[in-house]
Design a protein that fits this description.
alpha/beta; 3 helices; 21% helix; 8-stranded mixed sheet
């Protein structure tokens, strides 16, 4: 099932589920997004609740990503876009972190997940009037989001050759009727 449904005026509708996670010691607010940073979970199968638990076990306040995209294309809110992230040291207060379920060191991304990540990325770039898009490894010493993550393709399709945002129009719906 695809999360993107054509609607009037050429816009695309994205359905996003709020995971309603409980954070330890609350969250620090004041995120001022100037870029989007893409990640992978480095786990072939996991949920937003797994990510949250792993990050709590790391001693963090909870899920460090703003969004988590499952292989079936369903998008979950990890933390508020206004909250400072915990996903890329040195860039957490100036970015939106999007994490993909999977280990893209050893697997490839399916079309539903790809479409959701591309749409969400375009939406965030447009919403904040930004054109900076990075894979985690471009800003920090890591293999994330993995050698098989389609980073160049996402950049090309989100930004084009000009490096400027290509925006077809998106309508975000939080907690619609989409179920896992």
């Amino acid at each position: 099932m695809s999360l993107f449904n054509a609607i009037n005026k050429g816009e695309v509708e994205m359905n996003i589920i709020n995971a309603n996670l409980s954070f330890r010691n609350g969250l620090k607010f004041g995120n001022n997004p100037k870029m989007v940073i893409l990640h992978h979970a480095e786990a072939k199968i996991c949920s937003i609740e797994d990510i949250h638990r792993w990050h709590l076990e790391n001693g963090w306040s909870g899920c460090g990503y703003h969004y988590f995209v499952r292989k079936n294309g369903i998008i979950y809110i990890g933390r508020s876009e206004k909250a400072v992230g915990a996903h890329c040291l040195g860039y957490n207060s100036v970015s939106i972190g999007i994490c993909a379920e999977g280990n893209f060191e050893c697997e490839d991304m399916g079309q539903e997940q790809y479409s959701s990540i591309l749409g969400l990325t375009r939406c965030m770039l447009s919403k904040y009037g930004i054109s900076k898009l990075y894979g985690h490894k471009e800003l920090y010493s890591t293999d994330c989001p993995g050698k098989n993550f389609p980073l160049d393709r996402i950049k090309r399709e989100a930004l084009g050759n000009s490096g400027k945002l290509i925006y077809p129009g998106y309508l975000m719906k939080i907690n619609s009727s989409i179920k896992d």
